[in-house]
Amino acid sequence: MKTLSKTRERFYWDRLHADVENWCRECHACGARKGPKTRTKGRLQHYNYTKWPEAIPIPDQEASTVAEELVRSWISCYGVPMILHSDQGTNFNSALFTKLCELLGILKTRTTALHPESDGMVERFNRTILNHLSLFVLRNQTDWDTHLPLFLLAYRSAEHEVNGLTPVEMLFGQTLRLLCHILFGRPSETPSSPNEYMKNLEARLESVHAFARELIKLASE
């Protein structure tokens, strides 16, 4: 439970586990959205290593819009990817998008029409976005994009059930400073020099990734 793990990071009291479970269970908005829980058969998917998501609001799904946002919102932050995997959407498979990938040296792959399992992580994340944003949007659902950034903050700073680590830890090797830290503070980890910072960061990332690989291996057995 993500709420429980976040609470345990910063607080302790008797019956913490039970109190958090009861608090979550009594959330009427969440209960109304989730409905009765059912079990479905499926297989474990090995997907994106860090679990870091990006969700970018766009006015339409035209190929030109998607291509522009790839450059503006992704490549400008993280650089040019080696591989870009998408669904069967015509925007991703258009001549414009294909040419962009060729110019940037990106290997473009896609799911097959009858076997979209390789895109399972994105589909699950889409459902997670819908479930969470539905708790906050107005009745006419026109303000969802204003709630999206804080949802991403919450998701990126929450432990993932597969590797037991937060996406931000997996990607950056450190935790985010959140609103609760303004009230309760957090330990200072200011390095004495840039070299010390890089050394500590490399060691932290190596430790985090080793821990994550072990948990992913156990989950797949």
UniProtKB/TrEMBL annotation:
GO biological process per UniProt:
DNA integration
Domain Integrase catalytic residue range list: 2-175
By its UniProt entry, which Gene3D superfamilies does this protein fall under? 1.10.340.70, Ribonuclease H-like superfamily/Ribonuclease H
What is the enzyme's main class? transferase
Q: Note one Pfam family from the annotation.
A: Integrase_H2C2
Q: Which PROSITE patterns does its entry note?
A: INTEGRASE
**What terms describe the molecular function in GO for this protein?**
nucleic acid binding; RNA-directed DNA polymerase activity
Q: What is its EC number?
A: 2.7.7.49
For this entry, the protein name equals: RNA-directed DNA polymerase
Annotated organism of origin: Araneus ventricosus (Orbweaver spider)
